[in-house]
Amino acid sequence: MASKKASVKTSEVPGPKSAELGKLREQYISKAVGISHPIYLEKAEGSLFYDIDGNSFIDMGSGIGVLNVGSRPKEVVAAVKKQADKFLHVCFQVTPYESYLRVAEKLAKIAPHPGLVKSVLYNSGAEAVENSVKISRAYTKKPAAFSFVHSFHGRTMMALALTSKEMPYKANFGPLPETYKVEFPYCYRCPYGENCDSCGLACADKIDEQWSSPQFQGRVSSIIGEPIAGEGGFIVPPKDFYPKLTKICKKHGVVYVDDEIQTGAGRTGKMWAVQHWPGVEPDILVSGKGIGGGFPISATTGRVEIMDAPQTGGLGGTFGGNPVGCVAALAQFDLIEKSMSNVSKINGYITKRLKEMQSRFPLIGDIRGMGCMMALELVTDPKAKTPAAKETKAIRAAAMKRGMIMLTCGTYDNVIRLHPSMVMPDETLEQAMDILEASFEEVVKG
Ligand SMILES: Cc1ncc(COP(=O)(O)O)c(C=O)c1O
User: Fold this and answer.
1) Whose CA is nearest to atom 13 of ligand 1?
2) Ligand 1 centroid to 367 CA: how many Å?
3) What is the average pLDDT across 134-152?
4) What is the pTM of this model?
5) What's the chain's average pLDDT?
C-alpha cells in the first residue's frame, strides 16, 4: 500500500462544542430521531469527516451507503454550482427540463437488462418503493404486495409495512397497509434449518407454494427484495436464489421489484447487485441513495408496459427529480463507472483483515457481504450464535473515539457494517481496519 496516511485526530469525542449542540438537539428535535455518533460536522472531504471540535474521522458509513465515491466529488460540486446559477426548482410536471430526461435515459442504458426502459424520479428511497407498489397494482390489477423477513424498504407507510424489523421502525405506528412476508435466505441462521452445502432453496420453494395456495392464487401483484438485505445485516443470499425467484415470479405473473437503493450505484462492484447473478431480470428496479452523490434523488425504472399502466397524472410529485439532484446524478454516474474497478481490491483487503480478526476474536461469528458492503455478525457463543448486541454497540462507540464512523445493523442489532467509498485510498482503508481491530481489542479486554 503506497498512498499517504490520512490525518485522523481525536481528542475529546464528542467534544465540548458538539456537546453544547447536543443540548439544542434535546430541546428542539424529537427524541424519535436517533443519532449514532453525536459529533457535529463542519466539513467532509473524500473519505474524511471533520467535526466542529477539531476532530477528524475516517468515514466507513458513507451517510448510510450514499457517498459511493466519497464526499463532495469535485465533478458533482461543479455540476451543482452550474445548475444553481440556472434554476433550482420549476417542477418537471409543470415545465420540464432536459436533465430529468437524461437521468432516465442513463438509468435505461445502465439497467441490468434491456427491458427496463421507463423511469419516474422522486426524492427518497421510500417514495420510490411506495410507487413501485402503486405501479405494480395498476399493472396487475391485483392487491397483494410481498416482501422478505429481514428487509428494510423505508419509513413511509407502505415502505414501512414492507419492512420487517419491528423495533424501532414499526412499533406503535400501525395499522399499516396489508402486506405479506416470506423468509429470506439468511444462511447463517437458515429459517428452514438447512445446511448451506446442501441447500435446496426451500425459501424459494415456499414462495411458489404460498402463491399457489387458495389464499393467494391470482391475487399477488408484487414482491420486493433487496439483493443483499442491508439493514437486516448485509445478508447475501445463495447465488441461485434470485434466479429461481425470477422464474417463480414469471410463473405467477408477479412483478419482481429489485430494491437496489442500498446495494446499487456500483457499491458491490457492478452497477446493480443483481448483475452478479445471471438470469435475474427484475420488472422494476428502485434506486436512490448513491445515485445522487449526496443529493436526494430516487427512481423507479421498469418495463414499458408496467411503467405506463398507471393513469396520466397518477405519478409524480412537487420535488421529484429536482434539477439539482438530476445534474448531481449525471455527474455521479460517470464517477461510479470510473470507480467500480477499485471495488474488488477494497473488498479483498477488507476480507483479508476481517478473516485475520476472526481468528483472534471468537466474537466474530460470520463475515459476509459483497464489494464495498461488508459486515461482521457478532455472537457471544459461536455454537448457539447468541447475538452480541451490547458488544456491537460498544465496538462502534470505541471506533468513534478512535476516529472512525462505522454503522451497525441487523435484525438482532449485532452486525457491524462497513460501507467505505469505492475510492477510499489504500492507507486510509488500512487505518480504518487498524481502528476496527483496536476497537475489538478494547471491548473484548473489557
Ligand atoms: C434497501 C433500502 N430500501 C429503501 C430505503 C429507504 O430509503 P430512504 O431512506 O431514502 O427513504 C433504504 C434506506 O436505508 C434501504 O436501505
Assistant:
1) 154
2) 23
3) 98
4) 0.97
5) 97
